[in-house]
Design a protein that fits this description.
Strand content: 15-25%
Number of strands: 12
Helix content: 25-40%
Number of domains: 1
Low-confidence stretches: 52-60
Mean pLDDT: 85
Largest sheet: 10 strands, mixed
Distance between the termini: 20 Å
Structural class: alpha+beta
Shape: globular
């Protein structure tokens, strides 16, 4: 059975970074700059009930009250509730902080996009989760939302400058995530659906080799990282690229049964 969510795991250089107050504030602000409202998961869950209704907006005296859609009642930014929750998370060194991110875009192509961020210091990762079946369809709307998703991934990478990050979907190979120890030993077991290589892995793999990869997306990121997306796995474009070709080029194992002539 295919699970609907897609996850991107970011591995920082040190677990302690996930308790850094200034870095957290920078991260939340960066997400808000992507035209998002950033708040605790519980706060967003309660606000979601209001989506079915209109929100009353007080009008000046002697004027009729107006009613605006729910989205107009919120603006991009970081909620005060999240700021308070983050302070508690740091002070008490909580195991996790779960954050909801909601697009406030007016464009119908990006409207309604949402994701969840989990910071897990004990495990040593930042997890971004999105409902791929809901958002990434082979349509113009799906392509716009996928590009929006990539923008948020790039913003996250620019803030944390991870050693490594990858997407995990439970679809096909590879079926497991690398461990903290593997990542910090620079032993990445496979090529994933989306990959971000930090400076240490760039040096190990080779910058020119990464730049020459026959992948759908090869992009240098702010903070000296490289984004590699082997193929358009969601079918939002007519990508002719082949996962096995990219894996071979970068020196990663190719799934059993693959041949030189395999096509996506």
């Amino acid at each position: 059975m295919t699970l609907p969510n897609s996850w991107v795991l970011f591995y920082p250089h040190e677990k302690e970074e996930l308790y850094d107050r200034e870095r957290l504030q920078q991260f939340f602000t960066g997400l808000a700059e992507c035209n998002c409202y950033v708040a605790p998961e519980a706060e967003i869950a309660s606000l979601a009930i209001w989506r079915k209704y209109l929100v009353d907006v007080p009008a000046p005296e002697n004027q009729k009250r107006t009613r605006l859609p729910f989205a107009d009642a919120l603006k991009p930014g970081v909620s005060e509730g999240l700021r308070r929750e983050a302070r508690v998370y740091i002070a008490e060194r909580m195991e996790q902080l779960i954050v909801a991110v909601r697009s406030m875009a007016r464009s119908p192509l990006a409207r309604g996009f949402e994701l969840t961020v989990t910071l897990a210091p004990e495990e040593g990762y930042i997890l971004l989760s999105v409902d791929q079946e809901r958002f990434f369809r082979p349509t113009l709307d799906g392509l716009a939302k996928y590009r929006y998703w990539i923008k948020i991934i790039e913003k996250t990478s620019a803030c944390w400058r991870p050693l490594y990050a990858h997407e995990f979907t439970h679809q096909g190979s590879p079926s497991v995530n690398p461990s903290w120890d593997e990542v910090h030993a620079l032993e990445i077991p496979a090529l994933y659906a989306l990959n971000i290589y930090g400076p240490e892995l760039i040096q190990k793999i080779g910058q020119e080799r990464l730049l020459d990869a026959p992948a759908w997306v090869v992009r240098e990121l702010e903070g000296s990282g490289y984004l590699i997306i082997p193929v358009d796995q969601y079918g939002v474009t007519s990508s002719p690229h082949n996962y096995d070709d990219v894996a071979r080029h970068l020196g990663f194992p190719v799934p059993a049964g693959a041949s030189e002539s395999d096509e996506e």
